[in-house]
């Protein structure tokens, strides 16, 4: 990096909330397989603690050396429904507990991979894992879970979609004494990616190496400040500014990723350049929309503004690194973005508008608090809608909704930390049970038949 880039980066860090959101070590658990649960768990614990022993210290050393905040150090593992498939058991809750124990031992914030990939159907291991999710997320602190229910090549497994509506409600009930926070650690995907460093959806894909380092960079505040300099100018200038800024932000992530990889002796995987907001003022996607000319997030033009932002962030990122991956683009979580929270409170942003925005954002409906009285069929319907968007548009979509038991529309929920706080949003009250309960699989769209 040149002297000018260093000075510019320092300003981004000190004034614009630039950070490396996470260094995530992916760990394959395929060689931990065993039929005995106790042996499998010991193999998993030993593999994680041995592989990630120096992860947190390395992250802290890099923070001090480069002056770049590294907010989280995380681990992702092979989907447990695959890794534990040979285990003779009817519950994977003990596996979740050993993952939690290992995560605490090495000091990481979260560990992802309590996951199942069921886009075409469930194996015995998949069903055991899904049934274990509510208890697993209730009795652990750092374990995150994900389930992939559809893909553009396979269609949508509606049996899994129906089941996940029930699982989300069960998870909410089991953690109702903590505002149903278990659901904040659970995400349902269509087209899940294997190299995502962000939680709750991170897992170490079966096509990945034995160990890998993936880095997620975030800089909404940097993009916002850059756009303030070109306020009122045409769209060509707007797009060029986003691209140039995303390039600079990605360069920071590339530097940290390469150094982390070198010091840990673990291959570098990808940089995920995602504009992931925080509850801090000045670190908001919604504030970027306002600088672009919208009164509030959710106003007419919001979906177009998000499309511009998402596309140009990716264009700038791929020029800065040969290995941009994960879910790069713009995230729109409600609870983690004070501007989005404000838009909901003012009536500018509804669940339906958020769904429209997910057609062009990085992921989908994220960190949205809904009434605890919402039915499991309605949640399944929301998942089906979002999965359909992902399936038809060949993109990753996801649902992370939190039915907060005992709370209704307009009440506030406090999750704490990066998870933030959120107003409970209204959900369409009309029934979709007859549709959800049909069962079976929605076939893949016609454009899936290409090779």
How would you characterize the overall build of this protein?
The protein contains 15 helices and 14 strands. The chain is α/β, with parallel strands linked by helices. The strands form two sheets. Strands 1, 2, 3, 4, 5, 6, 7, 8, 9, 10, 11 and 14 form a twelve-stranded mixed sheet that branches. α2 runs parallel beside α5 (93-106), α3 (55-66) crosses α9 and α8 (220-228) packs antiparallel against α9 (235-264). It is globular and about 65 Å long.
**Share in β-strands:** 15-25%
End-to-end gap: 41 Å
Radius of gyration: 21 Å
Structural class, by secondary structure, is alpha/beta
**Mean pLDDT over the full residue set:** 89
Our count of helices gives 15
Number of strands: 14
**Which shape, going by the Cα principal axes?**
globular
Q: H/E element string?
A: HEHHEHHEHEEHEEHHEHHEHHEHEEEHE
Helix content: 40-55%
- Poorly predicted regions: none
Give a quick rundown of the structure.
The chain is an alpha/beta fold. About 45% of the residues lie in helices and about 20% in strands.
Attribute tags:
451 residues; alpha/beta; 12-stranded mixed beta sheet; two-stranded antiparallel ribbon
Topology:
Elements lengths: L2 H14 L2 E9 L9 H15 L3 H12 L3 E8 L2 H4 L9 H14 L3 E8 L6 H16 L3 E9 L3 E3 H17 L11 E5 L20 E8 L1 H9 L6 H30 L3 E8 L9 H8 L9 H19 L8 E2 L7 H8 L5 H7 L7 E7 L4 H18 L3 E8 L7 E3 L6 E3 L9 H4 L4 E2 L9
Parallel strand pairs: 1-2, 2-3, 3-4, 4-6, 7-8, 8-9, 10-11
Antiparallel strand pairs: 1-7, 4-5, 5-14, 6-11, 12-13
Helix pairs in contact: 2-5, 3-9, 5-6, 6-7, 7-14, 8-9, 8-10, 9-11
């Amino acid at each position: 990096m040149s002297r000018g880039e260093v000075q510019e980066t320092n300003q981004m860090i000190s004034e614009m909330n630039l950070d490396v959101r996470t260094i995530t070590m992916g760990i394959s658990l395929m060689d931990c397989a065993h039929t005995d649960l106790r042996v499998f768990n010991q193999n998993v614990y030993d593999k994680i603690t041995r592989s990630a022993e120096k992860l947190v210290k390395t992250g802290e050393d890099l923070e001090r050396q480069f002056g770049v905040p590294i907010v989280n150090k995380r681990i992702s593992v092979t989907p447990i429904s695959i890794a534990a498939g040979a285990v003779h058991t009817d519950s994977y809750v003990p596996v979740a507990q050993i993952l939690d124990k290992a995560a605490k031992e090495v000091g990481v914030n979260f560990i992802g991979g309590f996951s199942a990939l069921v886009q075409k159907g469930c194996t015995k291991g998949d069903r055991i894992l899904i049934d274990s999710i509510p208890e697993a997320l209730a009795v652990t602190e750092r374990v995150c879970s994900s389930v992939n229910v559809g893909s553009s090549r396979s269609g949508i497994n509606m049996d899994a979609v129906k089941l996940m509506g029930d699982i989300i409600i069960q998870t909410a009930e089991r953690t109702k004494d903590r505002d149903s926070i278990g659901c904040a650690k659970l995400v349902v995907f269509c087209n899940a990616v294997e190299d995502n460093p962000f939680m709750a959806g991170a897992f170490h894909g079966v096509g990945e190496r034995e160990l890998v380092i993936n880095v997620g960079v975030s800089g909404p505040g940097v993009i916002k400040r850059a756009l303030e300099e070109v306020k009122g100018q045409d769209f060509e200038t707007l797009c060029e500014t986003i691209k140039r800024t995303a390039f600079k932000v990605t360069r920071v992530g590339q530097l940290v990723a390469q150094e982390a990889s070198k010091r840990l002796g673990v291959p570098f995987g990808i940089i995920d350049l995602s504009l992931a907001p925080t509850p801090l003022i000045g670190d908001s996607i919604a504030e970027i929309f306002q600088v672009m000319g919208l009164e509030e997030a959710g106003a007419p033009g919001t979906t177009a503004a998000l499309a511009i932002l998402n596309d140009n962030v990716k264009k700038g990122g791929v020029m800065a690194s040969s290995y941009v991956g994960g879910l790069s683009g713009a995230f729109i979580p409600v609870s983690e973005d004070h501007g989005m929270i404000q838009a909901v409170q003012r009536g500018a942003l509804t669940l339906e508008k958020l769904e429209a925005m997910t057609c062009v954002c990085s992921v989908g409906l994220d960190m949205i608090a809904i009434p605890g009285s919402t039915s499991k069929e309605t949640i399944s319907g929301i998942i089906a809608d979002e999965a359909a968007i992902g399936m038809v548009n060949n993109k990753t979509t996801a649902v992370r909704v939190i039915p907060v038991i005992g709370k209704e529309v307009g009440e506030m929920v406090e999750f704490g930390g990066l998870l933030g706080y959120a107003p409970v949003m209204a959900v369409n009250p009309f029934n979709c049970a007859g549709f959800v309960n049909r069962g079976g699989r929605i076939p893949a769209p016609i454009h899936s038949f290409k090779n």
